[in-house]
Design goal:
Blueprint lengths: L40 H5 L32 H10 L14 H5 L2 H13 L22 E4 L12 E3 L4 E6 L2 E6 L4 E7 L8 E6 L6 E6 L3 E6 L4 E7 L6 E7 L2 E6 L4 E5 L5 E5 L6 E6 L5 E6 L3 E6 L10 E2 L4 E2 L4 E6 L6 E6 L5 E6 L11 E4 L2 E8 L5 E9 L22 E6 L5 E6 L7 E4 L5 E6 L4 E6 L14 H4 L4
Antiparallel strand pairs: 1-29, 2-3, 3-4, 4-5, 6-7, 7-8, 8-9, 10-11, 11-12, 12-13, 14-15, 15-16, 16-17, 16-18, 19-20, 20-21, 21-22, 23-24, 24-25, 25-26, 27-28, 28-29
């Protein structure tokens, strides 16, 4: 080959061009389809403690999810995603962090921190020992039940009263009985035998002389008895022979409402009537003195309530009306003055109004504007303020739905509700309902408060029965220190 020219032409190699057929499957970018039909995904995703290392608690930002790691790629194809969704191994909520093993998460430090922080945000309200929630709410049962055959069926009667000596008196037919709740001894007080006197419908123990009790009848007769002796001390007669409504004592003075619309005042030391108020135009159902004795509240069949100024410095005949006329949409029997705020008066109306209104004698606006009004759509038969807690108790009868069809006279139809025939306690001043307990099978006719202010007696004419309920508790007295001055220097 020697002697050949150096510039001999050599056929160049052809440059390799790209063609689809020249690319083999080994160089393709397409993902291979992986079939997981025969793979136990739960076993692969959740490995046992012996086949996998201990799981490390993920540490991520609390606002950015930290997904738990899994051993199998479960979302590489639509088919594997569907399989994983069926077994519950993945979900679409990307921002939700869930641990694989709940037991591990419950015992983790993060879980305990979250629980403790949630407890700090939760406000636990402490229930006072004097509240009805801690007493009647803990045991929604009556303490004592007594029979009352012949209880007056009139829903506006006052057949029950509780004395300061812990004696409960009740009018049954033409008789009046009383029981000493300490000794449980029942005694017969009197029997109204004269036809001209009618039947007992209202009884009220005296506050000045706890052994004296006034008994009002359906024909306007009011007799004053001494329970210790068992004899009648005095008898008064209403001029028009009208039925006696509500009665209340202020010292030796008895105020009694009459069917003719008058409020008459009697003195236990005087056989004659002292004076009267003639402002009402219908039967007076409610008569109640304020705890300080400065005001008198009266209510009638037309739903009108008056508040009178009966201070000791002026005669009862010169009583002045405080504010304007309070008007309810139904008869008002329930009246209650607040013992720890004497200027507050609670009034309750019956069917078809069913409201509780609270008024204040110190309000700058006219007294006719209530401080608070609570629509219950249930007949309110009596009201009792608690002397130990800021709570108001109400007893009820028939309930109705104001939105339901009405009768031909335009009045709502009776409909049972949780408040029907119940004892209900409301908080003050929020008026929030604390509890409601069904007291009787029929309407609660009347109620009275115990001398210590912790229990309430209710009476039901339909059942002819009375029940005592432990509603509140007296506050605990602070314990006297053992090293006090009086203890060290007391005479022994």
């Amino acid at each position: 080959m020697e002697g050949l020219p150096t510039n001999l032409c050599v056929t160049p190699r052809r440059k390799r061009t790209w063609t689809p057929s020249s690319v083999t499957n080994a160089y393709t970018n397409k993902r291979r389809r992986v079939s997981l039909a025969a793979v136990d995904l739960k076993a692969e995703a959740i490995a046992g403690p012996s086949s996998a290392p201990a799981r490390v608690q993920p540490s991520g930002d609390r606002f950015i999810s930290s997904r738990p790691e899994i051993q199998a790629p479960l979302n590489i194809t639509p088919r594997t995603r569907r399989i994983a969704n069926v077994f519950g191994l993945i979900d679409e909520r990307v921002l939700r962090f869930t641990d694989i093993t709940p037991s591990v998460a419950d015992s983790s430090d993060y879980s305990s921190l979250r629980t403790n922080f949630a407890q700090l945000l939760t406000k636990t309200s402490k229930v006072a020992s004097t509240s009805c929630v801690a007493n009647l709410g803990a045991r929604k049962q009556f303490v004592l039940a007594l029979d009352g055959p012949g209880v007056p069926p009139d829903p506006f009667a006052y057949p029950l009263t509780w004395s300061h000596r812990n004696q409960i008196a009740v009018a049954c037919g033409k008789d009046v009985y009383y029981q000493d709740l300490d000794s449980r001894v029942i005694k017969h007080l009197c029997k109204v035998t004269k036809t001209s006197q009618g039947r007992p419908t209202s009884v009220q123990w005296s506050t000045e002389s706890p052994s004296e009790i006034a008994v009002g009848t359906t024909l306007g007769s009011i007799q004053l008895f001494d329970a210790g002796v068992g004899d009648s001390i005095r008898e008064w007669r209403e001029e028009n022979w009208s039925a006696v409504g509500g009665m209340d004592w202020r010292g030796a003075v008895l105020a009694a409402g009459a069917d003719g619309g008058t409020v008459e005042f009697y003195d236990a030391r005087d056989p004659l009537i002292v004076t009267r108020l003639e402002q009402h135009r219908s039967k007076v159902h409610g008569v109640k003195f304020s705890p300080d004795g400065n005001h008198l509240a009266t209510s009638d069949q037309n739903g009108v309530v008056y508040i009178w100024d009966v201070r000791m410095s002026r005669p009862l005949g010169d009583c002045k009306r405080v504010g304007g006329r309070i008007k309810h949409g139904a008869p008002v029997k329930a009246l209650a003055w607040c013992p720890w705020q004497p200027d507050l008066l609670a009034t309750g109306s019956t069917y078809p109004d069913g409201k509780i209104r609270v008024f204040s004698t110190k309000a700058t606006s006219p007294i006719a504007a209530p401080v608070h009004a609570l629509a219950l759509h249930t007949a309110v038969t009596s009201l009792q303020w608690s002397p130990h807690a800021k709570e108001l108790l109400s007893t009820h009868g028939t309930s109705w739905d104001p939105r339901a069809p009405r009768t031909a006279l335009g009045r709502p139809v009776a409909l049972p509700t949780p408040l029907t025939n119940s004892i209900t306690v409301h908080a003050w001043p929020s008026a929030r309902r604390l509890l409601s307990v069904t007291a009787h099978a029929g309407a609660v006719g009347h109620s009275c408060l115990s001398p210590d202010g912790t229990s309430v007696f209710t009476i039901c004419p339909a059942e002819e029965a009375m029940k005592m309920w432990k509603v509140w508790s007296a506050p605990e007295l602070p314990a006297r220190a053992s090293g006090s001055f009086s203890g060290r220097f007391a005479i022994r």
